[in-house]
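TICKET #2291
ISSUE: user wants both folds in one file
ATTACHMENT 1:
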Amino acid sequence: MATVVLFHSVYGPRPAVEDAARRLREAGHEAHTPDLFDGRTAGTAEEGMALAAEIGRDELLRRAVAVSAPLSERGLVYAGFSLGAALAQNLALADARARGLLLLHGTSDIPEDAAADGLPVQLHVADPDPFEPHDWLSAWYLRMGRAGADVEVFPYAGAGHLYTDPGLPDHDAEAAERTWRVALAFLAETDA
């Protein structure tokens, strides 16, 4: 059983996040879904970005650390959707005990001195994705590899940015099911 901290996107703690956590729990994992937006949700990506900007990047990161730190001794798998994936990546690269990093729809900058010796990383991303363009993803992949991470990237042609969320126009049921099948296998391996 993996212990997973799953961070929401700029849309906030939507039902899709709890649905994802339920999938993880049904597969035998412990899943935590912290609310970084104080219960607020956004109807559009623009509203969500405004909400995230209002809270501030440093405060969002502080909140994510506050939730994860008490659990980190267990060896967490950090996971997230879009904005939440960026936060998860930052935390995983700073946690020497991290057991894995599951990125859904997003990545983040990688510090030059990042060390991710053998960290299993899986990224699921739309192809193309306006928030994760090909040149960015290529550079990201190379930097993660130089940091020592064991990275797998799964692109989904024709899917929208947040294609795993059935409540959004981006939803692609087939791509979402493929993502969860691969992601659950990944989590089972991090637990081995």
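ATTACHMENT 2:
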Amino acid sequence: MTSKSPSLARRRDIPKGIWALGFVSLFMDISSELIHALLPVYLVTVMGVSMVTVGIIEGIAEATASIVKIFSGAISDWIGKRKRLAIIGYGLAAFTKPIFPLAGSVGLLVAARFIDRVGKGIRGAPRDALVADIAPAHLRGASFGLRQSLDTIGAFLGPLLAIALMWLTANNFQAVFWFAVIPAFMALGLLVFAVREPARPMGLRKVRFPLSLPELKRLGSGYWLVVAIATIFSLARFSEAFLILRAQGTGLPLVLIPMVLVLMNFVYAFAAYPAGVLSDRYNRLTMLIIGFGLLIAADLTLAFAPGLIGVAFGVALWGLHMGLTQGLLATLVADTAPPELRGTAYGMFNLAGGLALLAASILAGALWEGFGPQATFLAGASLTAIALTGLGLVRLYLPKLGASHKA
């Protein structure tokens, strides 16, 4: 009798609710990326908006999502329910999708983009807390890795579908935007009918004011250490827009520019789940150290490797580091935060990371403009080395943080 491989056993044992949440993320990401891949071009070429205005719109939209996550996570702790807020968030995103093909003015498009990001902010922290609530402790890394993988598959299928549909419809933006409505409502329906929220454990403490100082202190030193590690790391991990600029500088044709993010997300998607499985068997901090090392390798490759092949290798390494770090950091939040405060924990975690990523991107842009792309990627490698040193010290002196939760 042949034995089943550990990876197959892991997939079999992961709760159905985690699979459902993963496909919810996949369908919504396909829908969102179909629109987001084309919206800047649509605003500039069809609606006559300036590039500065596009930047302002995108900046406000993403900042709004980060801020809303704090409050939605805290509210989910206060009411003791995650799924309701996730449905509201995914529902807002789904019902705003028809506005994009129907909008006849820039104002309506901006409003739709803003409401869509509010929906993302509302659903983000409660959804991650729901994953933590459903997943068994010994499969937590695999569960977060699976959800992250499916989410990221949507992130590279969306732009590919956008390219294909624009070709099939002879660049009919409205037709492509209408197509994006379908997977959005598929995601909402799957969440409503296929995800069952577990009952609140008996005796779990009721949280009255999740964002108060006493409650934030209850999150514990281990949690805040994870947030500090993630924030420092985010300072070294600037926007993927600089990967596109680096590829463009090697002479990549404009029509193939989206393939940069497709390559990165392809590697990211197929690395996240195995990384989560391994983190359940071994120390999560060890896996993160490997991921940090891969970011240094990616930065050095992008700084020095000549030609398009070298840049492609650097982009692939970047995707690999994302696969080994993003799901694991989310898992560490679940490992360290009290169950009744998981929504608040993910809200604070996402805010700190978002602000650090914004600062990192501004610094990267300034270095690129002042000293060239090599300086940007070398700065990223240096900041990652600092974060890696700190992570190594944490691994040495606090070995129980990130330890496996074997059944």
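RESOLUTION: both attachments delivered.
EXTRA DETAIL ON ATTACHMENT 2: The chain is about 80% helix and 0% strand.
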